[in-house]
Design a protein that fits this description.
homodimer; mainly alpha; Neurolysin, domain 3; 2 domains; three-stranded mixed sheet; 3 strands; about 65% helix; carboxypeptidase activity (chains A, B); metal-binding (chains A, B); metalloprotease (chains A, B)
């Protein structure tokens, strides 16, 4: 190790620790913070952001990066360099004036969006969205430095993957999803659960399930929050979930989803702690973990068979007669407008709509004034019925208001990656079904830990999936899985 | 305002915000953090400490401080300068090598102390304490820059007050306290409570009492922790308390005590938020608030009369017949070894013992090898019976293990200040008793807010008390109060 590399590692270590602190503050804000502290917290967070930005743009990083000979380093060192170089480059490319303007505008925009959604009035949000979009176009151009602007924004969430690559995947999926969706919705709708479910008992069962999926409670904790999330890395990875007395699936599947994210963070090689490799490598890879835990494992027939017994033992009569009816209830496909409430099948169509529209917004092929029409037209094309109100359409997601352009596609990319991993997993663990039927997903989560999670940021996102699966990721496995599952379920 | 002063204020604002973040992290560590995160958190805290240290030693501060003409500023500006100059001076005087050595040694020492206490073996702790003491002597010498070393350490907790001033006060108190203690303990011991107290009901009543004492729950929260504490400033001030099913006083009076600290922080003028004036001015002044809330108000006859009815309504039979017997139970004086369990009367004797011993340790008049003997001799002199085991004597407090030399006297100084404030309060609010008898301490807490709390760090600690009371603080009011209260209670 050269002196420059040692200095860079020390610097990176402290930056990483401060990043953890900012993350803990974010968790506190969503779970524990008294409501009267919001404004004060804004200033505290801004101070942390300024500290982190100053570290990422530290001129000494340029010197060290110039001095170090990458080829003399081992793969871990090379990965550290790759992450550090990228983060430094991105932080220095965006002028401070623009970064603080984006922070200022988006902090206000979220409130305006929420109000517009409550009033079902896109026009009340449109001027603000125009402003956010204009700033993000400017930021994207600064980051792109002559290359594709949308790709530059995407790189914050899915580095090393281009929009064109994603579009190729999505374009192959879309007709198959539209067709499958149409066939499924032509069939009679299965029954859902009925009854009321004690919320403390839901939380207790969810904690049990979280542990079964490998969540280490001694290095995490479960709280309730309005929007479930996972937060933290290494030995302090916390999740939140929520309860609905009429719907135990809300709590259970939110928990399993967040455990997927959290287990990924907890299982990264401890040697990478406080290095750029010590956290999930991208949003898409992260989502692949939450999705395979939630869907390919958690919504599988054998696991739902076990879960049915648990629910019956805990709550008595739940409104479905047997494990098969329960499996149908878990995987019920229904018409709906809202992305976050969508099933495995339709979810991806929601994402593709947003991906195509936001690419057009960034490239100026679409302007905010035409966005609502574009949304409504596309929705009716893919879903077969019109949006009934803006809150169910163009106003439903917070993302654009806070400037998250380039984030949406990572959700569906995560599904595609989960499909690939599921195929490899089933090959690697042939007797998985019997473990799942006993409520034990550990053979699957063990495989995921060794094949993927432990490596953290060692490889680029796509390479992370390829190394785990043994083949380059593509949409085939996910589509085959969805078509087989729902054809069988709905007797198509 | 000059440019230099504006720059200094901006810098101070961000430093203060980062200080808040570090405080929130400390709160999390004691309340929410999963146990497996301890080591990782240590590194995160160290990174925050390094950031704060770098800001406090920022060479630009020296330039701004040299450039600003204090006399051209208003009293607020002058106070900001005084705090900033002191903090900058102290941070720059301690060599980085020494600061990090103290951090390293004390982080390990606490564990060694805890183990030694569990094993009742002072020798197991002595070598570590020697090391801590030696480092703190070195730090004190660096801070003192030729002046008194103990005073230099004291200034971290009680700036502007010397050990000689405190010794004068304590020396006047000690014989009166020893004499009063002896007379009280010659009387029959009043009955305590009996029964079992539902912990949720204790917490509910404590929250009610916290609100009655002016704690703003919309800018705070109450959680349970092993050691009750208050944390934060401005609009996010959290407290913790604890419950004991056999002893509702533990929860109630811990809560009132912490509310005293928290209300002080919440009530500071909002204009001082994110300046050095936006937090309690010293440990002694802080403790004066917690103590007057807890003792002069919370343990007063009228308030305990109201509290007796509440406890009876909530828990039924509690083992004492009437309000008078309850008042005696609340204020019961008993033999004991432990500072944190001591009553209002004996508490100060515990502090004086520690103050005298730690001054001698710092001045090298006493060495660690002789500390246990010195403790035991002094204890028997003041309390009249010997220490039965080290865990009840020299090993009982965590403070010295983590290097807190100079901290102990602020507890008793807080009591002295509370005595002064109580005298002024009774003059200012003559009809206080009837409000307290109705469970409403707000006339007292309102007066304290206006006379003291709102001013935050505007004045030096002693001047803060003097401005509120209208006279220079001295031990007279506390001693008169204690002698009157306990003479009446015990029929002396």
């Amino acid at each position: 190790m050269t002196d420059a590399y040692t200095a860079l590692l020390d610097h990176s270590r402290e930056t990483s620790a401060l990043g953890h602190v900012a993350g803990r503050l974010g968790w506190d804000q969503e779970t524990m913070m008294p409501r009267g502290a919001a404004e004060q917290r804004g200033e505290e967070m801004a101070a942390m952001t300024a500290v982190l930005h100053a570290r990422r743009t530290d001129p000494r990083l340029s010197e060290w990066l110039a001095e170090i000979d990458d080829s003399a380093l081992d793969p871990v060192g090379q990965a550290v360099l790759r992450h550090t170089r990228r983060s430094h480059e991105r932080a220095t490319r965006v002028p401070a004036r623009l970064a603080s303007e984006i922070a200022r505008v988006t902090s206000v925009a979220q409130g305006i969006w929420a109000e517009a959604r409550a009033k079902d009035d896109f026009q009340a949000f449109a001027p603000t969205l125009k402003e956010v979009l204009s700033l993000k176009r400017e930021e994207g151009a600064a980051l792109a430095d002559g290359a594709d602007v949308y790709d530059a924004l995407l790189a914050d969430y899915e580095p090393g993957t281009t929009a064109a690559e994603i579009a190729t995947i999505f374009d192959a999926m879309r007709p198959r999803l539209v067709a499958l969706r149409e066939r499924v919705l032509g069939q009679p709708e299965p029954d859902g659960l009925s009854g009321t479910y004690d919320e403390a008992a839901q939380m207790k069962l969810s904690r049990h399930v979280a542990r079964a999926f490998g969540y280490d409670m001694s290095r995490g904790r479960v709280d309730k929050a309005v929007h479930p999330f996972s937060s933290g890395s290494g030995n302090d990875v916390r999740i939140t979930t929520r309860t609905d007395p009429a719907d135990p699936f809300n709590c259970l599947y939110s928990t399993i989803h967040e455990v997927g994210h959290a287990a990924y963070e907890q299982n990264i090689d401890q040697a990478y702690l406080f290095t750029p490799l010590g956290q999930g490598v991208s949003m898409g890879v992260h989502e692949s973990q939450s999705r395979i835990y939630e869907n390919q494992l958690g919504r599988s027939r054998p696991f739902t068979g076990w879960l049915f017994e648990q629910l019956r033992d805990t709550f008595g009569e739940i409104g479905v007669a047997d494990a098969e009816a329960f499996y149908r209830a878990v995987n019920r496909v229904r018409k709906g407008y809202i992305r976050t409430e969508a099933d495995e099948l339709q979810y991806n169509l929601h994402i593709m709509l947003r991906f195509d529209l936001e690419r057009q917004l960034i490239s100026r092929a679409l302007e905010v004034s035409d966005l609502e029409d574009a949304w409504n037209t596309r929705f009716e094309t893919d879903f077969g019925y019109p949006v009934d109100r803006p809150a169910h359409g163009v106003l439903q997601d917070v993302h654009w208001s806070v400037g998250l352009f380039g984030y949406f596609p990572t959700y569906a990319l995560g599904n595609v990656y989960a499909g690939c991993l599921n195929e490899a997993l089933r090959q690697a663990v042939p007797d998985l079904e019997s473990a799942l039927a006993a409520g034990d997903p550990s053979p699957a989560t063990d495989w995921l830990r060794g094949a993927l999670q432990t490596h953290g940021g060692l490889r680029e996102p796509r390479d992370t999936i390829e190394a785990a699966c043994g083949f380059a990721p593509h949409e085939g496995p996910l589509m085959d899985y969805l078509e087989a599952k729902f054809s069988e379920l709905y007797g198509l």
